[in-house]
Amino acid sequence: MKWMLPLVLLLAACSPNQVTTTTTSTTSTTTPEQSAVASACLNEEQKAVVGQPFAQSRPVLPADVRIIPPNSLYTQEYQPQRVNVNVTEDYTITRIWCG
User: For the structural domain made of 46-99, what CATH number should be given?
Assistant: First the structure.
């Protein structure tokens, strides 16, 4: 009978875990103050390059701009003065943002 408790504990430890997770959808809204902070590193000329080819917009952008092609991986550490540019496969700018 002494072996029964260790056997039960061993079987319980080996059983597959059935974890049920639920996901909730949250919508984040950006306040005007947050938008102002997020675009603080951009001037009006830089904000206007969305929709233009990257090569044409290159003189307007800083030298250390980070180009993010579609489906690429990139680090997400926040650096407020860094300019990020999302581009399409043919290097048309779709988004420009700070961070």
Answer: 3.30.10.10
